[in-house]
Predict the structure of Peroxidase.
Amino acid sequence: MLGPLARGALFFLAVSIVLCTGVLRSDATRSAAVVSLDDYEEDSGGDSPSFSFTFPETRPRGLVFGFYDETCPDAEEIVSSTVRRLYHADSNVAAALVRLFFHDCFIHGCDASVLLDRVGGRRSERDAGPNQSLRGFSAIEAIKQTVEAACPGTVSCADILALAARDSLVLVGGPTYPVLTGRRDSDGSFYYEAAGGGNIPAPNATYAMTLDAFARRGFTERETVALLGAHSIGKVRCRFFTDRIYNFAGTGAPDDSIDPDMVGEMRAACGRDGGAPMEMGYYRQGREVGFGTHYYAELLEGRGILRADQQLTAGSTVRWVRVYASGSRGEEVFREDFAHAMVKLSAIAPLTGSDGQVRISCSKPVEEN
């Protein structure tokens, strides 16, 4: 039977083929994938650029391939099969789990702190404004219970969330990418960090606020535009964009960056009451799920649902929107960029070794179980 290192090397090779990247080496601290976009021209009319992308560290401190090979060899398969079962029962769970992962990693790193309920009356991250519309908590708890039945007290909620996000993306047509494991769970939640300072871009955040939040986590504009491609799946509650279609910036008129036909569609879907639990999403081929570059094509047509989405076409980020929307070649580049950025996201400040804990229930620290 292959050991963890051999499995890791083979897995990296498989992922390289899937992503069509240059090199992903399990024995290197860094590798690079160079993307040449021959069919893309700068707005200035200059020569076609060749963009280089530095792959993030493949071995963050304490994270490895096959971390549970000896202690819970079926852990990743259990997570995958349970996510698949939950998805077939409700396809909306995929987008919910991906968003949950983003919001977790943006506050103190990927430590499952967003999953905690209130402890001792203290507010948790779930109470913070940007997190009040999060879903998927019960799905993570269901996965955790299944894993606990096989391997009690062994697999962290942080690793489960990281794996579940990747598996969810694959189910909706997204790229696969390597997920290292070995994370441990935070023993506390960080309400004030989640609630203030723009640490998590709210659904109605501006373009500048969104770019700033990602930049503070070390993401470039290119990586940010790629990660926002996750908006191609899931739905947004109407209350987060009602002002754009009725009274934008107090003008009494719609946001003039929205295509007029789109304004009509948004009004028809949402009505006047922004508090109604109505939702809209980016659709492809009549389906409400489906990961891909249709999101960027919609933005170029003035059909962005969220303000920050549409504003991606107004600044320097428009070049990446155009690249990703440029047909099959653009789709390939987007999938590579998105996968690389997700690896980088999943490596933000993990708790490893003796830090943190392994929760029995993802919503409660160990002492509360």
User: Anything to note?
Assistant: Residues 164 and 360 are 17 Å apart (CA to CA). Confidence is low (pLDDT under 50) at residues 1-58. Residues 74-234+280-347 form a domain with the Peroxidase; domain 1 fold (CATH 1.10.520.10).
